[in-house]
């Protein structure tokens, strides 16, 4: 019986023997008491079919245990382990906050190559499922980025309308201008309004300026969208414009593009996506 050489086993055996002896002794005592003793306790006034109930005071041990449990519960929830001291969601949020701080510090001043690499990675995860891995829009299911950020895209928006906008002034209707007028306005936007400051058709810029009033009703005289009421065309063709679209979201043909201002992307990542998307149109 080498297992008795283990102190834990020996103590367990001793405890079991003590419990067994006490159980037998207490059982014999109460069996004898049931045979010989007669109750002399005071009965309550109520009885049921002649069966009465003794008046039994609450045992001191029970009372102390009850009060002690209340005291312990108050200590446990208010001091020992406060309810607001820890939870898994809080731990996750703290980890995300710490990671984002490290990310922002590391990529505080990214160069063009870093933005392109980061933007491509985010694009493939967040954008490619709808826009395609090459950004071609998958046969019209979503925006074709190869045809975005230039005068042709502006002309298409004027002629066909801008659907799915979530700006306060709503969607831009189609047919506001004819094809030639739309081409002139596109030249004006790219050279005079957008920060690109370059048009493929500089000869049409002045004609576009005269027609700009049709667009200024929503976009403002300066094209900046009148404090967020409509898209800011001064950023059209740049990474900032793409970042604004990510923040606003859009109703697409195959579903709604979510607003990415819910924390899933940082500002640096949005700029990176904008940089990458802008490169697809060149």
List the helices and strands and how they pair.
Blueprint: H1 7-36, E1 43-48, E2 51-54, H2 60-80, H3 88-106, H4 112-131, H5 151-160, H6 179-193, H7 205-211, H8 213-219, H9 225-228, H10 239-248, E3 250-251, E4 256-257, H11 267-280
Antiparallel strand pairs: 1-2, 3-4
Summarize the structure.
The chain is mostly helical and 282 residues long.
Strands of the largest sheet, in order across it? 1-2
Unreliable residue runs:
none
Q: Mean pLDDT, as a whole number?
A: 88
Which structural class do the helices and strands define? mainly alpha
Helix fraction? 55-70%
Cα radius of gyration in angstroms: 39 Å
Order of helices and strands: HEEHHHHHHHHHEEH
Name the overall outline. Answer: elongated
Strand share of the residues? Answer: under 5%
Number of helical regions:
11
Largest sheet: 2 strands, antiparallel
Describe this protein's structure.
This protein is mainly alpha-helical and 282 residues long. The protein has a domain at 107-280. Helix content is 56%, strand content 5%. The protein is built from 11 helices and 4 strands; from the N terminus they run αββαααααααααββα. Strands 1-2 form a two-stranded antiparallel ribbon. It has a two-stranded antiparallel sheet with strand order 3-4. β1 and β2 form a beta hairpin. α4 (112-131) crosses α11 (267-280) and α5 (151-160) crosses α6 (179-193). The longest helix is centred in the N-terminal third of the chain and has 30 residues, at 7-36. It is elongated, with a radius of gyration of 39 Å.
């Amino acid at each position: 019986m080498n297992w008795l050489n283990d102190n834990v086993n020996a103590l367990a055996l001793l405890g079991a023997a003590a419990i067994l002896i006490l159980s037998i002794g207490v059982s014999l005592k109460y069996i004898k008491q049931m045979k010989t003793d007669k109750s002399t306790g005071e009965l309550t006034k109520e009885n049921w079919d002649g069966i009465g109930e003794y008046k039994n005071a609450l045992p001191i041990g029970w009372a102390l245990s009850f009060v002690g449990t209340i005291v312990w519960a108050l200590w446990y929830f208010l001091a020992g382990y406060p309810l607001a001291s820890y939870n898994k969601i809080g731990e996750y949020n703290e980890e995300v906050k710490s990671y984002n701080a490290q990310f922002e510090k590391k990529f505080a001043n990214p160069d063009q190559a870093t933005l392109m690499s980061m933007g491509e990675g985010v694009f493939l995860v967040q954008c490619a499922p709808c826009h395609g891995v090459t950004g071609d829009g998958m046969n019209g299911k979503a925006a074709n980025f190869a045809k975005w950020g230039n005068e042709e895209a502006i002309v298409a928006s004027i002629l066909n309308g801008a659907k799915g906008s979530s700006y306060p002034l709503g969607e831009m209707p189609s047919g506001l201008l004819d094809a030639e007028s739309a081409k002139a306005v596109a030249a004006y936007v790219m050279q005079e309004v957008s920060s690109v400051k370059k048009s493929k058709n500089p000869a049409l810029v002045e004609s576009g300026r005269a027609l700009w009033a049709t667009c200024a009703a929503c976009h403002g005289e300066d094209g900046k969208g009148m404090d967020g009421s409509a898209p800011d065309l001064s950023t059209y063709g740049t990474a900032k414009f793409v970042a604004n679209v990510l923040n606003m979201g859009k109703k697409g043909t195959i579903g709604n593009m979510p607003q990415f201002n819910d924390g899933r992307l940082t500002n640096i990542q949005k700029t990176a996506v904008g940089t990458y998307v802008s490169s697809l149109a060149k």
